[in-house]
Write a structure and sequence with these properties.
Number of helices: 4
Largest sheet: 7 strands, mixed
Radius of gyration: 15 Å
Structural class: alpha+beta
Order of helices and strands: EHHEEEHEHEE
Number of domains: 1
Strand content: 35-45%
CATH class: Alpha Beta
Length: 146
Amino acid sequence: MQIKLMDRSSYKDAAAIMAQCLSQPWSEKTLFQELSNPNAHSYVAYEDGEAAGFLSVWEVFGEVSINNIAVVEKFRRRGIAKALMEHMLGELSHALSVTLEVRRSNAAAIALYQSFGFAVAGERKNFYSYPTEDAILMTKYLNGEK
């Protein structure tokens, strides 16, 4: 597996992953615009040369917010989401905290985040649509911060 920072050669791969995996994917145009956002860090994972997973975060004043993480169905249960998380946490190890929202029903994702030390910090009612669902807010503090 190879994980690379999203760039002009991979943003269309990221868009294709999102289109396959998310109910409200970002467009190619949005992902292209992310390339010039100094707060954006997006990673694309490749398995045997195929785009397999995507992770997008924003970092502002030491706080990281995970926007999206997605793995193409045929590549699931191979550790790609875990590898993307490890890569991102390594790249942004200087940050104070990492926060994310996850669908309440997504037990696999919740278990993954808990394995990295994320803890429930709250909830957001009706946060998701297609279908409507509450989100669980999870946070991981880095470098002894809290």
